[in-house]
Design brief:
Layout (H helix, E strand, L loop, with lengths): L4 H14 L2 E2 L4 H13 L7 H7 L2 E5 L3 H4 L3 H4 L14 E5 L10 E2 L5 H12 L8 H15 L4 E6 L5 H14 L5 E6 L5 H12 L5 E2 L6 E2 L6 H6 L6 E4 L15 E5 L11 E4 L9 E5 L4 E5 L10 H12 L3
Parallel strand pairs: 2-3, 2-5, 3-4, 5-6, 9-10, 10-11
Antiparallel strand pairs: 1-7, 7-8, 12-13
Helix pairs in contact: 1-9, 1-11, 2-8, 6-7, 6-8
């Protein structure tokens, strides 16, 4: 399901026609944040607001630049807030950080207990840490509490659900005395655009089945790899138009692949359709990480290669004559 909004909607039409289920290659990362949002709620903001107003930024976990290579530039982390002026302080709560950055905390430690200790300290509750071990986190908690507009940034592709929930709880606590929000960086390959498109189309995100009178959503039941691994699925449609990624289950089931030209497979699919890349080969509605929402992307190098939406629509139409 690496596709744009039009491809996601065409996928739903095909799934409804054949009684299939829909998953995304990065669904596990999507649920790391989505589960927290729909079970506990959260306070989040947009990249534009973070750039314009945040005087305090907390980077949580590794892989932020991998999730969004242009993050530092787009958020202007080295510059003062565009609207409010003054200074911007950036702190790193990154266990894997190996630099000598004095604003870095929690090097070499698991992120969940560090977040738990930071939340407890920020709420002025006791922890099991001694004075020496807790001193850096006390300094960090004090700095976060003094923020006029703080933003905590994490990558949904790196943090599991429990660390995300703990971080969102910290944000809730900080909002009792100041203004603080989260900014989750979404997974790649159109995960956020597909999630939003499926939700407004059918009421549910990926890992939803369409073999029933109404769509049914179950993150375990409709996990594509589990369905194929257990033999519950006898065919698959693999869509990866935004990157030349091969399907991970090799020849476990007959697979129809919609991929860019030149995609290398370990086991060739039963059928391969060459499709264009949204925003490059054809115009598309995609998730813009700088905007924090769905936006129009004009084709940067237009070609006549078919889109995912056009290919799936043709397949769905051909099914009526079978």
């Amino acid at each position: 399901m690496g596709t744009d909004v039009a491809g996601a909607r065409a996928s739903v039409a095909l799934a409804q026609a054949i009684g299939a289920s829909i998953d995304h290659m990065h669904a596990a990362s999507v649920f790391a944040s989505l589960d927290v949002m729909r079970r506990a709620g959260w306070i989040v903001t947009t990249p534009l607001q973070a750039r314009a107003r945040a005087d305090t930024v907390l980077l949580v976990g590794d892989g932020l630049l991998e999730a969004w290579p242009e993050m530092a530039e787009r958020l202007a982390l080295d510059a003062p807030p565009a609207l409010t002026g003054g200074s911007r302080r950036v702190f790193h709560l990154c266990p894997g950080l190996s630099t000598g950055d004095p604003a870095a905390f929690a090097r070499g430690k698991p992120i969940l207990p560090v977040l738990a200790a930071l939340r407890a300290i920020a709420a002025q509750r006791p922890t099991s840490l001694d004075d020496v071990a807790s001193a850096p986190l006390r300094d960090l908690a004090s700095a976060l509490a003094r923020a006029r507009f703080g933003v905590a940034i994490w990558a949904a592709s790196v943090l599991d659900t429990l660390p995300v929930e703990m971080l969102c709880g910290l944000i809730d606590d900080l909002n009792k005395q100041t203004r603080f929000a989260g900014l989750p960086l979404v997974p790649s390959n159109g995960a956020e655009a597909v999630t939003q498109a499926l939700t407004w189309t059918t009421g549910f995100p990926p890992r939803t089945g369409y073999a029933f009178a109404a769509p049914q959503h179950d993150p375990w039941r409709f996990d594509a790899r589990r369905l194929i691994g257990t033999g519950e699925a006898d065919a698959a449609v693999w869509i990866s138009a935004l990157s030349p990624a091969p399907h991970p289950w090799d020849d476990a089931v007959p697979t129809v692949a919609l991929v860019p030209a030149g995609t290398a497979f370990r086991s060739p699919p039963a059928v391969v359709f060459e499709v264009g890349c949204p925003g490059r080969d054809h115009d598309a509605m995609v998730f813009d990480p700088a905007l924090g929402g769905i936006a129009f992307a004009a084709a940067s190098a237009p070609t006549a290669v078919a889109s995912v939406a056009g290919t799936l629509a043709a397949i769905t139409a051909a099914l009526s004559s079978c």
